[in-house]
Amino acid sequence: MTDGVLPSPNIWRHPGVYELENRAVDPDGVIETAMRGIRDWRGGVVLDVGCGSGFHLPWFAADAARVVGVEPHPPLVELARRRTASLPNVQVRTGTAQRLPVADASVDVAHARWAYFFGPGCEPGLRELARVVRRGGVAFVIDNDATRSTFGAWFRRELPRYDPVAVERFWARQGWARTPLTIRWSCASRADLEAIVRIEFSAAVADGILAEHGGSEVDYAVNLFWRTYP
Ligand SMILES: C[S@@+](CC[C@H](N)C(=O)[O-])C[C@H]1O[C@@H](n2cnc3c(N)ncnc32)[C@H](O)[C@@H]1O
């Protein structure tokens, strides 16, 4: 089961701060509006791959018929189950993108957010999506766009070898569309922003960011990659 699992130190080691990060992401609903404009999940079956502590499961469950979260890291599976215990239309299963514990042609909308395991080299996961998404369904992958925005510059500082153009080319070769979006983090306080920056970046990079960037907000470019399954 651990095959293909990528360590996610931010949420694995600091689930409490990661929760603050999730609450700070995209207060304007830019991602939601873009996703719903492509394919609404009202009344459908949603799959959240790499669901972490299940932050997005209640959000989907509010108007989906059924929601399945898949997550490999056992403590996060537990947190996601606890979060959704009172929601009868949500199930959390232990598994990976490469071996989804989900039946063929059973999903209308698949979603993977901040999912490092989707990108160049993730073809086994993409084959699994093609297996489980039914005809007329859609898959969404939400990822950082390191080519622009203040957050993008921070990301490049942390990972100078990261090649965002190669990532975009990979998705285009796989036949996925790209919708560039600009969102923001709006943290409840400066202390929250500092804590979040410190779980996302190495100490030296975080020190530099916090010395030059004031306040509790940052502009943040993302790519919504998506494809339909006709
Ligand atoms: C940065 S976290 C994002 C969690 C969640 N999507 C969210 O937005 O709150 C990435 C998650 O992917 C999970 N993960 C790592 N490798 C995976 C794989 N091969 N298949 C599915 N999930 C994986 C990690 O355990 C972690 O929970």
Describe this structure as you would to a colleague.
This protein has 230 residues and is α/β, with parallel strands linked by helices. The protein has ten helices and seven strands. It has helices at residues 9-13, 15-24, 30-38, 57-61, 74-83, 123-132, 150-158, 164-173, 190-200, 203-212, and strands at 45-49, 66-71, 90-94, 107-113, 133-144, 177-186, 217-229. It has a seven-stranded mixed β-sheet, sandwiched between helices. α2 (15-24) packs across α9 and α9 packs antiparallel against α10 (203-212). The chain is globular and about 50 Å long. The mean pLDDT is 96. It binds S-adenosylmethionine (SAM). S-adenosylmethionine binds at residues 4-6, 8, 10-11, 22, 49-52, 55, 71-73, 76, 96-98, 113-115, 117. The site of S-adenosylmethionine has 23 residues, from α1.
Supply the key terms.
230 residues; alpha/beta
What oligomeric arrangement do these chains adopt? single chain
Largest sheet: 7 strands, mixed
Counting helices, strands and paired strands, the structural category is alpha/beta
Mean pLDDT: 96
Question: What ligand molecules are bound, each kind once?
Answer: S-adenosylmethionine
Query: What percentage of residues falls in helices of 4 or more residues?
Result: 25-40%
Q: Roughly how many Å apart are the termini?
A: 30 Å
Let me know the number of strands: 7
What is the CA-atom radius of gyration, in angstroms?
Answer: 17 Å
Spans where pLDDT lies below 50 across 5 or more residues: none
Proportion of β residues?
A: 25-35%
* Number of helical segments with 4 or more residues: 10
Order of helices and strands: HHHEHEHEEHEHHEHHE
- Please give the order of strands in the largest beta sheet: 3-2-1-4-5-7-6
